[in-house]
Structures
1.
Amino acid sequence: MLKRTRQMALGALAGAAMLALASGPSFAQNEQFIPANGYWVGPYAPGGSGFFGGVIDYFQMLNTRDGGINGVKLTWEKCETEYNNARGVECYERSKKKGPTGATVVHPLSTGITYSLIEKGTADKIPLISMGYGRTDAADGRVFPYVFPLITTYWSQNTAKIKFIGTKEGGMDKLKGKKIVNIYHDSAYGKETIPVLDVQAKKYGFTVTHIAVPHPGNEQQAQWLQVRQIKPDWVILRGWGVMNPTALKAAARAGFPRNKIVGVWWSGAEEDVIPAGDAAKGYIAAGFNLPGTNFPVMQEILKQVYKNGKGEMEDDSRIGSIYHTRGVVAGIITAEAIRTAQGKYGKKPITGEQMRWGIENLNINDARLKQLGAVGLMQALKVSCMDHEGGGAVKFLQWNGKKWNVITDWIASDQSIVRPMIEQSAAAYAKEKGITPRDCSKES
Amino acid sequence: MNWQFFLEVLAGGLLAGVMYALVALGFVLIYKASGVFNFAQGAMVFFAALTFVSLVERGMNFWIALLATLAVMIGLGIAIERAVLRPLVNQPPITLFMATIGLTFVLEGLSQLIWGSQPHGLELGIPDEPMQWLSESANINISQFDLFAALVAGILVAVLALFFQKTRIGRALRAVADDHQAALAVGIPLRQIWAIVWAVAGFVALVAGLMWGARNGVQYALTFIALKALPVLILGGFESVAGAIVGGLIIGASEKLAEVYLGPFVGGGLESWFPYVLALLFLLVRPEGLFGEKHIDRV
């Protein structure tokens, strides 16, 4: 009897599996497919679920309110990467041919996965948007035609950070003789800003000490004891995940003031400070998107999506959080690039190659930001063949124990430092890979 | 050499070691009773802390939430015995070890499925800040929370030592650890013993989860603290409660001293691998660990 029941159960399971395989996701011809390759479980789930929650909420709003973009409905499919390079590549391969025109664009949401996909995306003619992460020198579109580290790269952000510290000290000339400690995640991501910090230290006359924190960063006593011995004027926190609250707690234990710690935007979400409790009060972080639900675009999302029970965020308190609005910004950029490409190639689903043109000719100016209801949520953005970054400015936010307060206006990056470094690094990459850089004057 | 700073690093390291020992204790318990290396201990710590903090955030009183979580952990221990261990009695240790690997993923997934993947803050009411008087008088920063953790670990070790040495169940546990079949033959109820020991390990996981959760927040990364306990176990011995503490102190102090004094010469970040190098070197000299039992098998 037991054997028979087990056989029946196995049969039913196999039948269901075959049915699922046979049916699969189906796509209509007038749809634009965008993969949602992110992470909803594991140590970095708060970032992944918040970001893609924002992206999907924005797409859902456009579909509900406008019927998509010029009549083309937006579709997506989630694939769990677990922030793992191999899984990220697997999700990319699985999603690249879906939809009537294949994957339009991929947001890898991981510097590691971005690195793994640069050559694949270029070969498959599928653009990668690494908004605020990824390979900084990809801002040189002549060498990296399919990679877009949009809005602000790590290097740009870092120069804005030093400008912010300079302002706090009373001028850039006051940085001379100051001591800055750079506490970084011991990974490719963490090490990315070491060269640009060294260049700035030389330029402004401050000393910088780089202190590595091994992954995952859940124990930092030794590092903060070193900070205590160095007695720096400022600490730059370049953390990720559990490393961030642990750093703030360890700083409190070492007696280092939190309002002298400036974090990168991956250290500047609610999830990075709430676990640290009171130890996070006063902490400052950079940001290229602002939190909140008062922006008209966020109100539209609440009205069109959440009131209809279609919202992605299960926890209402996360709507309008840093990661969520960052996803909304990514959604806006993606949708605007599709719209731009449609302007040239027609109001129909576009290919990845056409999307590349759309991103490269993206111009979200102040007037367009107003139409989109995103004034203040993000900065104006103008992308070109030469410049795949497009923005470069940063605002600074301070945690008051309950919410982030914006404490500066947009602070422009120092492109006199960043751009030559980008071009030098991109040229070295081109040489290594045998790439002939594009002539941007011939691009239309 | 700045001796004051050296002392501060040393003291900080020893107290960090106590936190590692809290996790290592859970491993020791299971290993002592069943000869199984419980790979799922980190996941149990995460599950316990997440359950507790989620209950508190839903408005439950602190102490009631603590009791409720303890009940959940005991229930979990009994369920593990029923669903995972009972069918594997008399199987080789490697089979039981593999079962605990599977259990890790089940627990990690279950925790996030029930309570979500958001990080939470956890306040136990003990300030994690340097003690003012020590800081002012000796310029040494020692956190009150670290001392509290050391006190908790001390109490836990004393209770567990008494439990193993002085109670019938404790003696039965030791017999089961030596030989499952022989223990069964003399009438020791193996299944009951395993359920008890897994429930006690659940309690230890709860204590470790509360301490680590209050330190860094309650989030998925709590599962990684098991990695901190491994070199402690290799050094202290898998079967010794005292070994977990001594091993924790040695690992904690040496990794901090190494990071501070050797780190700058190798680019830093050696805290993650230095304890393993130390443990490996120790293995060469004393394979059973400082306090582990020496096994002599007849051929």
Note: The domain at 31-152+291-382 of chain A is CATH 3.40.50.2300 (Rossmann fold).
2.
Amino acid sequence: MNTITNNSMPTAPGLASANNALLELYKEQYELEDYQKGVPRWCSGCGDNAILTAVQRLCRDEALAPEKTVFVSGIGCSSRFPHYMNTYGVHSLHGRALPIAEGIRLARPDLKVFVNMGDGDCFSIGAAHWVHAVRYNMNMLAMVHDNNIYGLTKKQASPTSPKGLKTNTTPRGAYLDALNPLTVTLGIANVSFVAQVVDWIPKLLYQTLSEAYHHPGFSFVRIIQRCPEWLPTHLDEYLRDPERVLLLTHDNGLTLDTDLTKRYTKIEEHDPSDIHRAREVASGSDPIPVGILYRNENVPRYEETRSDTRLRTSALIRKGLEAEFDKFTIWPKGHQPQHA
Amino acid sequence: MAIEELTKVKSKNKNGRVEQASSPAVEQTRGAGVSPAVAQTSPSAPPLKPKAKVTRLKEHIVEIISDSGEGAQKCGQSFGAIVARMGLGVWTVEIIPAEIRPPARSVAGASGNRIRFGSTGVTNGGNETDLVVAFNEQVLLGRVRANELKPGCTILIESMWREDRRVAESYSTAIDELKAAGYKVYEIPMEVECHKHMPDAKKGKNMFALGLLIGLYSLDLKVGREQVALTFGKKGAKVIESNVALLEAGYAYAQENLDFRYEIPAAKSTEAQIVVNGNTALALGVLASGMEICAMYPITPATSASHYLSDVFEVVGGVVHQAEDEIAACTFAIGASYAGKCTVTITSGPGFSLKQEAIGLAVMGEIPLVVVNVQRGGPSTGQPTKTEQADLMSAIYGSHGDAPKVVLAPATIEDCFYSVIMARKIAETFNMVVVILSDANLANSQAPFTRPVFDEAWLAPPIDQSAVPTGAKPYDWDSKTGLARRFIPGQPGGQHTLTGLAHDEDSHVAYDAEINQRAIRARSLKLAALQKTLKPPTVFGDQTGDLLVIGWGSTKGAIEEAVTELREQGKKVSSMHLTFLQPMAPGIKEILAGFRKVIAIENNWSDLPSDEIIDESNRRYTMLATLLRSRYLVDVDCFSECRGTPLKPATVRRVIMEALS
């Protein structure tokens, strides 16, 4: 593959189209196969498959150089994700995908960083990292595959399991109200992109991920997905009844195709720049709000605040080091300082 | 012991009130070389001027202690820097209370500095204190009760408490008791004297005390003024001026009111030296190693390294990332390292425990990583400000499963600097985690070492972004050394998913028993490959003898000082200090064989054979002793001390004498 591609994340979705067209000329064309690796070992009907397909399409459409792309995941069913991408990947520790992705991002702004986590991964064991990742607002696309259950460890209640859900650790029903990841995320300082989708509307899934990818900052996408193994009927009512999904649309958000609006008639015009309305929309769970809840491109990105554009030459390091040594040096009598 | 006869010395303060200060009777005097600087700063009312007796010394230990926030630490550090500038050997140790603001005048609240200085190089904090400056009697009593003061040592104490009705009684009782116990007590009206130069006298006392010490030790007042200018450099000319005035007042006070002086001749040094504490040395090492990112979370006593680094790292394009927790600091570092920039994370015991799972990921994925653990007292929260060496086993064997990593321990402040450069190199050469075990003793001690000469080879090479040869695998373990070439994101053709799961050469999750066996072998072999490159440790003293003392980390100075002293007395004792704890250098078994007896001396626990229920079948040995016994099948004995204080040469001497008897 030719590696001369557009390496920097786009700075705004509305970047001058002429500029884009120019960049297109240098882009290598990729096929879906360039991003595919192995045969996923997820159950058939698992939402992870839909997400993988959407992401591979996104990579192809954005012509991402596979060697310049890194998928980071934690532990859980969904965290096998990087193994099925023919890019670089880190299948890390339970809950720790975000700080690893942040380290990669700070060290290498030339790489595209994606994160795949499960609901237990992100909202339970990794909750501290989730909160702070939002605050850092580093440029990456974070997907939470939320099936309301721990799958890999065999059906335990997760923070998003609805109250009353019978699982192996809550045989008489989950004791607590479910955590609402959207309202939490929207309450964190520096939040810059929050979206929610469901795995059974592939077109919206793709559209949302694409918008999230183009967002300059930390894009948080909660994907509500089915678990056919442990909760086979859990979301059936939502699947059957289009009225239980609320599509969010706006000129600054998602624009909806007619085939979608024909089936899903519950539609709200929601301006993603309105955080107050976003919080109201986020607090509703039935119907499930789907689309972009919040987008703010002007939030500072930690990696840009912190990183230095100067070339770290040995001369630069030496100069800084000698200056520090000077501060602490005791010169013998008669010996003049060399770096006065 | 005889109580000092006191002569009253009168001096007037601003309000015209007569204050009483004391100065002991002079037994024997000879002419003191009084600096001309005194003449310019003498107070308006001419006091009695005792003739000072001058004593020449090889070395001395001075302490300055106060309530927290009264500036004794700044005074001590400045004094340490001044004696170093004068060409003396010096080692300073911070005296730190566990709380930020313990109650004023409390026995447990002593905050300050101990400065050991002498004609020749000083390698440790030494034994007991010879002279102490105290701002109140309570913090002083704390030090007396901790047995840190030499019996009969000289005490210079703030006398204002005599006038304070609330505490006058406890003050005078304490002073009387100290005198009765044989301490030479000099009561000095520090606050009254400072008042002449500064409205808020409480704040300036430390510089007054610094001036006193400069006078008492016949040091150059000019160097003192320069040091004050350096210390307060950031605060502007006015602050410097008033502090210099206090310094000079203290100096003048000593010249006019105290009847003794010390002189410690300096050996002539011809090379430039830098004076920093161990944590600053670590941070300078990070700068010099070419590493670009340090990810940390605040924890005592490691944080001062990150404070300093935060201040200077950006000058060379580096970043200190304060993560949301210890785990995030470690995983952030792993992410950056994975992406091609070997990264360091700095922590202490509790943080080190939290990082262990992540360290295992770096071991499994073969990601280079430098982890600094500035050890403190444990377990749990333990003694955050005190020193201990009890994380050796968790550094070597920590993280679940078989997780081989490199562990090395700096023994001096100079080592702290170079160990980071070495750790980065080893980490990247062997794709391993390297743990640096420093401790609170090194972290908070200052001593000069030869100014390092910059070497480009210290720096990390640029990130390899060349295409990976067709057919190459991300874990192509060499069957002899276990080493594999690492693929860094951005390298075309190198795409793979690094995983913490067992994996094969292609980084595919391994379900096959043989693959796991092969991979574990490879990761373990890397330690042996590193070990083959190490030189045998050097023996301090003769290669054979009656006793070999073995240590690691910050105890080196104390051990070698005791060994030197006893060798001068004809004892056949040597010592050996290990830098590499994992892997251990070759040749150790042969060294052990040269001695009749071997004993490890460490600041981690070992059961006492004298305890009733302790015997050979249940005694826990110190950590290094345990390692040496199991590896070399030698009956290594051990001595341990977990007092939280740095090991003293006198303790080592006692242990050696007992072992030899």
Note: The domain at 274-458 of chain B is CATH 3.40.50.970 (Rossmann fold).
3.
Amino acid sequence: MSKIIVNQISKRFGKTQAVRDISFDVRAGEIFGLLGPNGCGKTTSIRIILDIYQPDSGFAEVLGGPMSAEKKAKIGYLPEERGLYQDVPLDRCLTYLASLKGMRDEDIKAKLPVFLEKFDLSAHAKKKTKELSKGMQQKGQLIATLMHDPEVIIIDEPFTALDPINTQLVKDVLDEERQKGKAIIMCTHQMSQVESLCDRLVLVDQGRVLLMGGLDEINDRFKTDEVLVKALTPLPSSIKGVKDIMPMNGNHKLTPEEGVQPSQLLKMLMEQGVALESYKVLVPSLDEIFIRVVEEGKRKDE
Amino acid sequence: MPKTSGNVWNVFKYEFLSLVKRRSFILSLVLVPLIPMLIIGGLRLLQGKDVPSIQEVFVKELTNPLPFGIVDESGLIKQYPEWSKMRFIAFEEEAQAREKTAAGELQGFYRISKDYLSSGEITLVKPEVNMVSELAETKSLGELIKFNLIDGDEALYTRMTNLMDVETRYLDVEKADTRDQSSGATFGVPFAIALFFYMLIIISSNQMLSAISKEKENRTIEILLSSTSPMDLFLGKVFARGAATLLQTTVWLGTILLVSMLNNSGFTLPFQLDLSPRLLIFGLPYFIVGFLLFGSLLAGMGAMAPNTREGSQYMMIVNAPLVFAYISINQIIASPTSTMTTFLTLFPMTSPIVIPTRIVIGILPGWQIAASFAILLITTLLVMRGVSHLFSSQTLLSGEKFNIKTFFRTLVFGK
């Protein structure tokens, strides 16, 4: 079941078309990647979902209908522009933000220490936010996003300022939330995190959708039949079934002839007596897909 | 008007507690009344229990109880009336007066020259400057000379010093300004009340601008908007600041009343403060609604301005009517029934300080109170409605430059 439905939303600010006919949906128990270059319309789309902005056309539904005050309390939002009260102790700031999400005082008192402990911030609870490191502030912000147990989580660049240990901690927390059936939208430029966390993604540029689908589906769509081999003996200059051989960092990239599948190519190499140490079907990284799709989009515009 | 989302109380609670827990707030709450009390108390301890008033505490510090000597070479001063004997001692020779002054038994001495009647020449000889006692005693010497110029005729001197005893009768006592023109309180008390309300409204409402634009500067606004409505933020903040100011005022007024009560135990204020129930009954609503009016306007500016600095540049446009009313206070006190005073009483952006001032003056028809409050209330509600349009998420998250035309257009037309 879709927890968020975005249907053909458009938004213009003056002469700038920030978002143009964007549609996607986010289901319960999935992490959905909302990707795109800076200024592509991600934040505007999120603000429309959150009812901070009204779309010029189209609509966004959250938890089965339009946004309401009650639904705002069921959403956890970590914006790109981080904001905690700098001159206020962390625990007081988090208590206030939780109260705005409808949490009762006794629930906040019970849950806040648990979250502070989980994010290793117990010792810093009484410190003013400005006295904390950026990474600690980031974790504090994540507590504000998650403490009220939201059904929908929207997080923009959650790994900013985090060291590898804390990055793993946040990944584990997000995975945990997914297991609980939460619908999660994640915006990030770190494609490795998208590859390891997201179930589906949408790629937006210049306010419009360029690519959408499941991670496997996208990999399949962009994969080539090229293979990377490491031979134990020098490769012959021409191999049956191979159109092109290109050396690559001690390996060789082989481009099969038309109609030859990688599995067939392996069989053919073995039959021709090519001794191999490794054989790998080349799959483009999400970074490469991202760049390729965005550049293709720009070329089409030109 | 945009809807609230039930978070007004949460915003109010957080903002109010944040304000009153601030060190600067606590210090101002305690120190503003405490410092003058400590100074007065300290002076009392140093001076002993005989000091009867604040004025006298300070005057006693400045005046010198020692008498002046008089060396009269003109032979004019033949009689010393009773009131002059504590202040002046006659000396035949200048050397004697000089010796007593050097010994610290006199503040100094006056030498009246031989040809005083033609030249008016008098020399004052003294060891150091004391402007207060010098002015007072020179005036007393003048009175002594006048007394002797009429050969010490007590009855004539009394008439000279009190040339007439005018009794004023009014055509219509009910309508006439019957204030005691000779009393300092007639001008002092209304002026103090005007200053008090002016400071109260201008300081508390001006804080609204920074309260809103700071949320934008520290980037908390987006988090807040994802949890609550802009109207909740606006109302919660306005009410919290109003409540904090009321708390501050209550403590300060309480202290003034306490000081007034100490009247019996030794010192008084420079004039009797008339904190009549009428002032409190009318002053409180005028402060609350006045604060809502100015606080809302400045909160609207804060919502539009990208930062506090840019918003502050335009603050004066909103504050101008209040400032004008304040600088017109002398006119209002002098002519409480003039057309200008009536206009400032009815005009909603000046009435919050003019009404309390006129209540203290005592000349204020009931219809003017009713009309001015109705106008103030309606204007405030309309302004709050207009400001609610400025409190849209789009305006709050926009980083655009402040535009005064857009501000007033949105305020009046809603877009």
Note: The longest helix of chain A spans residues 164-179.
